Amino acid sequence: MSETKEHIATFGTYALIFLALLALTFATYKVALINLGPWNIVVAIAIACVKATLVVLFFMHAAYAPRRTRMVILTGIFWMLLLLGLTLTDFLTRSLPHSSS
Q: DSSP alpha helices (H): ranges in 1-101?
């Protein structure tokens, strides 16, 4: 049988990722205080995606996982984007109800 080599992350790696997550959380707070109009949500979601990526890669050990695991993660992300895209196209093609005032 083949042996699998496990990667053990150091405390320093976890500390750096933790500090990065804290900095990104602070950045989210600061961006929320700035009026960017409709771009506020876009910037907030972009920062949230970066934070989620860090958590998945390092705290869930996906960065050191075998190819199969990475493929499953990417397939899940693709499926989520497909469903969100189809939902968005449905939402954007609907007409707004007319208000009777």
A: 11-33, 39-54, 67-93
